[in-house]
Known about the structure:
Shape: globular
Number of helices: 9
Oligomer: single chain
Radius of gyration: 18 Å
Largest sheet: none
Amino acid sequence: MKNKTAAVLFSVWMAACLLSIVWIIQIKRDILPYTDQWTRVIVPHVHGTGLFDFFRVITELGSSHVLIPIAIAAAAGLMLLYKHWYPALLLLGGTLFAHLLNTWIKQLVARERPSVSVTLNAEGFSFPSGHSMISMVFYGLLAYLLCKKIHSEKGKLTVQILSGMLVCLIGISRYFINVHYITDIIAGFTIGFALLYIYIRIDKNVSDLRRRREPA
Length: 216
């Protein structure tokens, strides 16, 4: 069952990765991807509604002025939970690298946003969405590290579901408040998921190494 789930996730990720490459080529040629053409019509109908207000609040959970204090608090909590500095370093270092990589890719692609807003933490270039990418890494990695300390399968599943829902809502909020295109968000999720997988593999390798070094 796990192998089938992993195969499906990998297939979806590969499809999104290939699409993201196609979108980058189109963006660099000043072509609006069909995915964005089809989805842009929804945005004007959301502005000024309760749905817009909801996503306006949700998007703050991926904004730097909120995410940084959460990250520091989470890192401190992980140090107490694990009684070691390594999990906190993995969380903070992994999130920082995701931010730096996102900034570099944005400069490389140089796509203009559908709208710019200082109050919505939406300045600079658009592709890929930083909120989507960084939230995927931070909240996904935090959920993974918490689940390692949770013995109940229901508890683990609850944390995973809540984390997944939060990441999805933060990402899609950027579309509904009109500061990103859908393709920006999908690309952000795609790159963020790849980073998250790499960090988890690193942690598992480090954990295996530490176990082998422990005295019998």
